[in-house]
Amino acid sequence: MWETVGIPEVEARVYEALIPPGQATVAALAARTHLGSARVTRALAGLVGRGLATRTPGRPVRYAAVAPSLAGSVLIAKREHELARLQQHLHRLDEAFEAGRAARQRSRDVELIEGASKIYRAFVEIQRSARAEVRSFDKPPYFVPPGEHGDDGPNLEERQHLAAGQVGYRVVYDAESVALPGRMDNILDGIRKGERARTTSGLPVKLVIADATSAIVSSAEDQRREIAYVLHESSILDLAIGLFEATWDRATPIIRATPNPEAPSGAQQRQLLSLLASGATDAVIARTLGWSVRTVQRHAHELAERLGARTRFQMGMEAVRRGWL
Questions:
Q1: CATH for 219
Q2: pLDDT in tens, 169-186
């Protein structure tokens, strides 16, 4: 029982033997406990040190027991303090354990990729892993410059997938991407091959999602540092998918594969409408279509009158409502 508060068995026997007489010598206690004098002496030294006994003056040396209720209260309070310290220590160990487990989980959920060539290969591998659909945010700058892998440039994997007819593509292009020289032709070629494309401004990151199993994401700052992150099945991947779908719902379709019969018949007219709806400037549109700025403004004015719109935003909304985009 005394072990509960840290008192060894021999000390407990000596203490209890000391209580009835109130005071006793080493020899008397040895006789009462049937322990040798040396063991009794060591036990008494321990009891004095713990505050359970006192040494009285005079000869022969006698020892007196401290009142059991007082001694017990001190021992219990001390043990409670030690247990409280142990509990605090266990809490700290729990926090370290949980932090380590969370770090291990994060390392499984998110994988850091460093170096432009490795990042490009990761973008390719993510797309190749898709079995049903690839969803993507297309935003410059690119890890692979256009032309490095032929005219398809960074869209090479997409073109091969679309040609095979096994994987669908939904791509949201940033207005900056649409404005790059020759980029619209590349985008329209993808649409003819089956890509579903929309555009918006201010995409936060570059993103490629393969089905709902993996993704790769990189921001402008990541691009500068040549890093990207591969996301595996987790709540983080679910968040990336939710971001894509919300952005897709708000983005403007670039052009329909089969336009509404009432829509502008010329390809350049439809491109103009898509660019206007995406928020591209007159200078960007002129460069993209090979027109002068004045020509862009004239055609934009004609389209606005035809749609009964006062602003370019209204033009885009009305064109979508009519099925022109």
A1: 3.30.870.10
A2: 999 998 888 777 777 778
Gap between the Cα atoms of 173 and 157, Å rounded:
16
Show the tokens assigned to 136: 């993507």
Beta strands in 57-104 (DSSP E): 62-65
In 3D space, the residue among 299, 163, 190 whose CA is nearest the CA of residue 254 turns out to be 190
Give the three-class secondary structure for 145: coil
Question: Same structural domain for residues 249 and 287?
Answer: no
Q: 64-73, 114-123, 224-233: which has the minimum mean pLDDT? A: 64-73
Number of domains in the chain: 3
Q: Give strand ranges (E) for the chain.
A: 23-24, 53-56, 62-65, 110-114, 133-138, 168-174, 196-200, 206-210, 214-218, 227-232, 252-253
Does the model's pTM come out above 0.85?
Answer: no
Range of the domain at 124: 115-253
Residue 247, pLDDT > 90, answer yes
Six token digits for residue 85: 């310290």
How far apart (Å, rounded) are the C-alpha atoms in residues 263 and 273? 10
> For the chain, what percent of residues have pLDDT higher than 90?
14
